[in-house]
Amino acid sequence: MLARAGLTVERVVEAAADLADEAGFDRVTVSAVARGFGVKDASLYSHIRSLQDLRERVAVRSAGELADRVGAALMGCSGRDALMAFADAYRTFALAHPGRYQAQQLAMAPGRWAELGGDLRGIEATYALLRGYGLTEPAVTDAARLLRSAFHGFVLVESHGGFLAARSPAQSWPEVVDALHRALSTWPAGA
Amino acid sequence: MLARAGLTVERVVEAAADLADEAGFDRVTVSAVARGFGVKDASLYSHIRSLQDLRERVAVRSAGELADRVGAALMGCSGRDALMAFADAYRTFALAHPGRYQAQQLAMAPGRWAELGGDLRGIEATYALLRGYGLTEPAVTDAARLLRSAFHGFVLVESHGGFLAARSPAQSWPEVVDALHRALSTWPAGA
DNA sequence: TAGAGTTTCCTAGGAGTCCTAGGCAAATGG
DNA sequence: CCATTTGCCTAGGACTCCTAGGAAACTCTA
Prior knowledge:
- The structure is a homodimer of 191-residue chains.
- With 191 residues, chain A is mainly α.
- Helix content of chain A is 65%, strand content 0%.
- Chain A has helices spanning 9-23, 30-37, 51-74, 79-96, 98-103, 112-115, 121-131, 139-159, 169-185.
- Chain A binds chain B through residues 26, 105, 107, 110, 123, 138-139, 141-146, 148-154, 156-157, 160-165, 167, 169, 171-172, 175-176, 179-180, 182-184, 186-187, 191, and chain B through 26, 105, 107, 110, 123, 138-139, 141-146, 148-154, 156-157, 160-165, 167, 169, 171-172, 175-176, 179-180, 182-184, 186-187, 191.
- Chain B binds a DNA duplex (30 and 30 nucleotides) through residues 1-7, 29-31, 39-43, 45-47, 50-51.
């Protein structure tokens, strides 16, 4: 048989991530990815261990990509501008790459994240941002959870078409971020 | 053949919802539900149209249950107490019924929700709560989206075990709700 | 109460999926 | 140039969704 497809773990994971963006993360299937390469499904098992393994790799890879965008957006900003930049970069990524974003919701066994080379840049960026508001532990942890929850929830509901009111989500977004800014600015000092 | 299982749409959907809470919504499968009744999978197709149909019914039913809890919790509360009651009822439901909660994320075709008898009590309760803060359109829509996003995001991340810091999510929760209260209290009047 | 009709569940089977086992051919390196 | 490694294959089992058609259990009516 001539002409190998030239598969590697990276290319398989990337193809899976692209497929996730196009068809939805839950439709990322070993067979579908194999079809995309013009290859039998069994062939992929030389590169990935299982469907679960493939999905976890997509999740970690996507989280890295998101952290890159957010990190780049934060460069040179501080305070309220930084929050806005963070928020916009986050939402933009989630809307442009719904499958990659959805992948990050995947629950993994403890330790599996680090095992696959996942980092914590996203969390670190958030903490840096919040220290700009003068927050210290444990307030900074609580505030980070607020931000993560609000951003995550918003883009998730938006990308599911869950906001039904006539007002477009894009109009609400700055108001939501502004509300979070007020919440951060008025955080009680001594907890 | 003796002894029918006595299946109805309601009982099938309820069993599916219970299975979702135990094993995860994505493991709700026609075969698994049928096994729970001691029945062949083909038998369920007299009651449901497809797996998709079953899952949508679980979603709508679960949303109704959540709205019941939230509505009951809100009775006789107002202002900040109402927000806390809302938040606690919401989070309690999501943690006690992870599968039912996860089901509500299911994206449906437009109109399908109403077709299955789904209501909008959840949204109405939110709007009533926010009018207690003196908000009017379009601020009330933006604020509703903030609340929904933050609550949804928090319980989602929490139930996935996504909060890694040592501080327990239960400790952060009141602080997060308090922050939202400040954001609502300081919402700019004329938008 | 007996027959007719409806409902409920069955068997049978096709198509798609995940995954394993074992094999051949292409690339690589001594 | 030959041996080893690597990449993709075929074959096949188990499980899934779903359809088609049949039989048994209920229900209704004359």
